[in-house]
Specification:
Length: 266
């Protein structure tokens, strides 16, 4: 398996492949041949299973809604929800519950009400949620939860992408609070600022202003902290990403959540 890439907001997102060691990753270009890579991947999958770590299998499925469009007094909303169906029920349930909490009206089977729309105005708001499986690194599996919303009359829609990483051995979502060691947040933010100084200064973000995002994923060269639109940059620039190289991250991240498997030889 090669590096998994997703294009989002004009950025290439690189997620480490199944059990790839950080030491051999230098970017988004696999160095081995296809046959060598396939053989290595097969061997790693076998060892993963033997260690009791499930190997994630996932497919995209539509979310069943009472109806795709709901009209209330303040207007109509069209819904487009998709999730993943994996071989782990607890992961499926996690995303089902997240989607239901995000927009409960879509699931309420409400009776439509008449809505008057001025001529020339859009007739409906939009609400979309997509869940995608990105990849697995031994006991760490990463998914993306993408949302888009547009309200009638707004200048533009708003999009967001949240990365959700699970600890497959303990069956839980890894939050940033659980990711980092106790009492190291300030030092981590300082290291993150130092690793991204040029970009941050270009955007007038001082060291004192920078805060730690609660949204992250494992990139090719480090742990990537993702910030919402407008928080660090303009709407046109999309979501901002700050990378903390793995050699620095290892000082602050709990060892069990560093994406490396030292016992494997490459």
């Amino acid at each position: 398996m090669g590096i998994i890439m997703r294009l989002y907001d004009k950025k290439i997102i690189c997620i480490l492949p199944l059990m790839a060691a950080i030491a051999i990753v230098s970017g988004c270009q696999p160095k081995s041949t296809g046959k060598e890579e396939q053989a290595a991947s097969t061997a790693k999958v076998k060892e993963t299973k033997e260690a009791g770590v499930p190997v994630i299998q996932a497919k995209v499925i539509p979310v069943k809604l009472p109806k795709s469009k709901v009209c209330l007094e303040d207007g109509c909303t069209e819904y487009d929800f998709q999730t993943v169906q994996t071989n782990q029920k607890w992961i499926n349930d996690y995303f089902t519950n997240r989607i239901k909490k995000a927009d409960p009206n879509a699931f309420a089977n409400l009776a439509d009400q008449p809505v008057e729309v001025p001529e020339g105005e859009p007739r409906s708001s939009q609400s979309a949620i997509y869940v995608r499986y990105l990849g697995q690194n031994y006991n760490l599996a990463t998914f993306a939860l993408q949302t888009y919303s547009y309200s009638v009359g707004a200048a533009h829609g708003m999009s967001h992408q949240e990365f959700v990483t699970f600890d497959l051995l303990n069956k839980k979502h890894i939050t940033v609070a659980e990711l980092i060691q106790p009492d190291v947040e300030k030092q981590l933010v300082d290291a993150l600022f130092d690793a991204n100084t040029n970009w941050l200064q270009e955007h007038n973000i001082s060291r004192e202003k920078l805060q730690l995002s609660d949204n992250f994923y494992y990139g090719a060269n480090g742990i990537v902290f993702v910030y919402p639109i407008y928080e660090l940059a303009s709407y046109a620039e999309g979501m901002s990403e700050l990378t903390l190289p793995y050699f620095e991250a290892s000082k602050f991240i709990k060892p069990e959540y560093l994406p490396s498997v030292p016992k494997y030889k490459f």
